[in-house]
Amino acid sequence: MRPARSPVKKEMQVKDFNEGLTFALKDLAANWEKYRERYEQWLNS
């Protein structure tokens, strides 16, 4: 997420929605702390 900016969209090479969802869930599990930090920095700026 990029609050107050236009979103960055990239095409994903996945077979179907289930594979895309699995990819997204793994990404969130691996990176949630970094995403939260960045969001909190944005809140406090």
Describe the structure.
The chain has 45 residues and is an all-alpha fold. It has one domain. It has one helix and no strands. The longest helix has 27 residues. The model has no long low-confidence stretch (mean pLDDT 90).
The gross shape turns out to be flat
Low-pLDDT sequence parts? none
Whole-number total of structural domains? 1
Helix-strand pattern, N to C? Answer: H
- Report strand %: under 5%
Describe the biggest sheet?
Answer: none
Mean pLDDT metric = 90
- The first-to-last residue Cα distance is 16 Å
Quick structural summary:
Helix content is 60%, strand content 0%. By secondary structure, it is mostly helical.
Features:
mainly alpha; 60% helix; 1 helix; 45 residues
Helices and strands, with pairings:
Blueprint: H1 17-43
